[in-house]
Amino acid sequence: MKYLALVYYDEKLMAQKTQQEWDALNQECIACVEGLSESGHFITGSPLMPTSAATTVRVRDKRVTVTDGPFAETKEQLAGFYMLEAKDLNEAIALAGKIPPARYGSIEVRPARELVAEGNQAGGDAG
Prior knowledge:
By secondary structure, this protein is an alpha+beta fold. 26% of the residues lie in helices and 32% in strands.
């Protein structure tokens, strides 16, 4: 089953890291992805640019509106994601616990669902 591991941290705190600390963390993330890939658990993933580069798109009453910045102000910002293959939620949680930025923020683990033309559960609730 596929699980999305969303990486969150406080961008302000991360901006206080030295270049050496930042490089070390990124090297840990690269090694984490290599390990997850070798074990067959990594599907895809990517770090994200900071929220200052975000654009939010909404459609209301058939009108598209665009806002600079993230969807909402929060203490922690979405920093990246890992799409993982795991046998169950327990394994996905164990894998997410290996993601280095978990030390600085949080990793939200959420099962992915298949999108089918008909028969999707209302609201996406798989049951």
